[in-house]
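A quick aside before the break. I want you to see a complete sequence-to-structure record at least once, exactly as it would be stored in a machine-readable document. Don't worry about memorizing anything.
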Amino acid sequence: MTFLFSQEETNVKEEKKNSIYLCAGGYGGIGSINFERRFLKKQKAQVIYGLGIGSYRLLDYSRALNPDITIPFEIGARYGKKHGIQINIAQIITSVVKADYISYSKTRYCNIHLGFNLGYSYKKSNKFSYKLMYSPILEYYKYYRNWFAISIGYDF
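That is the input. The structure line, written in tokens, reads:
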């Protein structure tokens, strides 16, 4: 009686589905931390969604610590392996502190804005990725604001 045991050896590394990255600029504000997950992949094309939290400023108009907060929810697509192009659309919830026009007291206002991303992404290895994006925002769905973003991410 003969027994055969075999293992298939591959050098193909499994591509990571999740990323966490730090971003300067963009619709997350001056600085943000973001989570991104790939949920669909077909050859070089990927569909992704993400969530982040950031801030435009940490101090309010009276110089007290009272940050303006941004929370972008995004969905998008990336095409490419090592070098890629990425496009996203986002709903951005903002919570900002302003002076009330009647009582002049600090009041927090929440709003929703529309954001877009178009840019270049680069995956140096199976762990780190970099992005350079043009990220305009349609504030209050009325006012067009130009933003640019640069980010570094860790894939897991």
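Two observations worth writing down. The chain has a mean pLDDT of 89. The CA atoms of residues 97 and 103 lie 14 Å apart. We'll return to this after the break.
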